[in-house]
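Weekly modeling sync, notes
Attendees: S.R. (lead), two postdocs, one rotation student

Agenda item 3: backlog of single-chain predictions. S.R. asked that every request posted to the team notebook include the full sequence so nobody has to chase files. The rotation student volunteered to paste the first one in as an example of the format we agreed on. Action items at the bottom.

Example entry:
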Amino acid sequence: MITPGGAETKNLINAEVLAALGPDGILINMARGSVVDEAALIKALQDKTILSAGLDVYAREPEVPAELIAMDHVVLFPISARRRSTTREKMDQLVVDNLLAWAAGKPPLTPVAETPWPPKKRP
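Predicted structure, as returned to the notebook:
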């Protein structure tokens, strides 16, 4: 989800929205921490209302709630790594280089350990 922060979007993602995602739902917030009702998110994750969450923004940055840190089905990432334009340019180029490698049938330059290479053949 990407949306601006502010009064109009505060807690836009609340318990009702999380329940609508369902037990296979995954929330990814790259917008603003204020957009997600963090207490409702923690409860939804603890109760398995949703499957998982990926966050790089938090309601009270840089504070990350201990409950989120303790969960093994949540991916937390600090947003500070992408603030400089030179970092962004290098990240963008790495995406392009990985896509070019994939298109050429080569292994990724930055493989993810959980993703096997080469990929399994589809039937």
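Discussion: group reviewed the output briefly. Helices lie at 15-21, 38-46, 66-70, 85-103.
Action items: rotation student to repeat for the remaining queue; S.R. to check formatting next week.
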